[in-house]
Amino acid sequence: MAGGMSAECPEPGPGGAKGQSPGPGRQCPPPITPAPWSLPRWRAYVAAAVLCYINLLNYMNWFIIAGVLLDVQEVFQISDSHAGLLQTVFIGCLLLSAPVFGYLGDRYSRKTTMSFGILLWSGAGLSSSFISPRWSGLRAGVGCDDADWELALGPPNPPRGAAETQREGAAGGSRSSWCEDVRYLGKNWSFVWSTLGVTAMAFVTGALGFWAPKFLLEARVVHGLQPPCFQEPCSNPDSLIFGSLTIMTGVIGVILGAEAARRYKKVIPRAEPLICASSLLATAPCLYLALVLAPTTLLASYVFLGLGELLLSCNWAVVADILLSVVVPRCRGTAEALQITVGHILGDAGSPYLTGLISSVLRARRPDSYLQRFLSLQQSFLCCTFVIALGGGCFLLTALYLERDEARAWQPGTGTPDSKDVDSNDLERQGLLSGTAASTEEP
């Protein structure tokens, strides 16, 4: 063939490049390479500090009720099932807003999206102080930001718009729709199984964050270390102890998980999902021992609970890395938003209510005593050990598909370097902190 008929233009997409004839009189445009970019070291550190601070406020916001749960139940005379429902209602606005703002984050400025979310969150929080101490609307602003915060704290992305520009410039097509992105993600089995694994993590985290302070306080009463509370305000020192333990194990766990993934990824390509699977499978017996030993020795219960939280925390940064490595850049905001939504709907939006419901059902069949209340809550917690073990199985399944989905996400034409030039990604990561430009061009 001659002229424009002698070549085929690649049409990039989630499933890889497809050959398409350019037609008479047309020539394939040259491949578009993302422009080099750099970020000064001090700006990287300031950005990380600000994002960590915002996330700290985010999680403080999440667990306000857990710290005063006894007072809430005493004042309103509500059962465990109704108390658990408070957290379910509280998360509702986030579930509605996360997919919307994940979609916007893929197509518009993430800085603008996050700024609007923070403004909405701050305004709703300020308004709630005049309307009600627990206005669920303040969650909407957090939902606006969550989809982008995870991406911002992960490895550096190519310059914004690189994937969309490449697709439109090379093939003359338009941006994919939200439904097309969702269909692509539904066929990405690494994303599907890792999302179910994250859901199991969120289920256990939600149940522990909401009910563990009360469970530990009731264990303290059973041991005779503190009298029962029959009139508010109720003093619960275990809220502060459990919160401090969660912060400490969370910080250490995230660092350990990220460092383990960085080291073993060089040796074992499937290291990330295997780390997540092993840590969750090890969390299950720790959580079980923490529950069954609580009536016998409170110290041992704290030790195993802290160890379980440490193992659980090892996965949060690693899961973000998995998502970034198996999803094409143009879908990452949508992917993060869907993962957040599924994780909350099937995870921590329902686990406090389900745990409280099981506890209320068990209490209804037993004598009304403080010991029976404690045993009912203890036994309702056992479902978390089975859920976290299932989460470990989901990450084992993720490991089966990881390499295949990574190769597809890094194919030419998806806004990322060629799979043959993976080392350029390492240069890009180094450039984020060193301030040097990282280019994905091949020599």
Characterization of this structure:
This protein has 443 residues and is mostly helical. The protein has a single domain (41-413), classed as Growth Hormone, Chain: A. Helix content is 70%, strand content 1%. It is built from 18 helices and 2 strands. The protein has helices at 41-62, 64-67, 69-76, 80-107, 110-131, 138-153, 162-171, 178-186, 189-222, 237-264, 271-292, 298-313, 316-326, 332-348, 351-364, 370-380, 383-409, 423-434; strands spanning 9-11, 18-20. Strands 1-2 form a two-stranded antiparallel sheet. A hairpin with a 6-residue loop joins strand 1 and strand 2. Helix 10 packs antiparallel against helix 11 (271-292). The longest helix is centred in the middle third of the chain and has 34 residues, at 189-222.
Question: Which keywords apply here?
Answer:
single chain, 443 residues, mainly alpha, Growth Hormone, Chain: A, two-stranded antiparallel ribbon, 18 helices, 70% helix, globular
SSE layout and pairings?
Elements lengths: L8 E3 L6 E3 L20 H22 L1 H4 L1 H8 L3 H28 L2 H22 L6 H16 L8 H10 L6 H9 L2 H34 L14 H28 L6 H22 L5 H16 L2 H11 L5 H17 L2 H14 L5 H11 L2 H27 L13 H12 L9
Antiparallel strand pairs: 1-2
Q: What is the CATH first-level class name?
A: Mainly Alpha
In spatial order, strands of the major sheet run 1-2
Rounded mean pLDDT is 74
Largest sheet: number of strands, sense, barrel closure: 2 strands, antiparallel
Number of strands: 2
CATH topology, anyone? Growth Hormone, Chain: A
Oligomer type: single chain
Structural class: mainly alpha
Radius of gyration, in angstroms, nearest whole number: 24 Å
Total domain modules = 1
Instruction: Outline the low-pLDDT stretches.
Output: 1-8, 10-20, 132-173, 415-443
Span between N and C termini? 29 Å
Strand content: under 5%
Helix content: over 70%
Helix and strand run: EEHHHHHHHHHHHHHHHHHH
What's the number of helices?
18
CATH architecture: Up-down Bundle
The 3D shape can be described as: globular
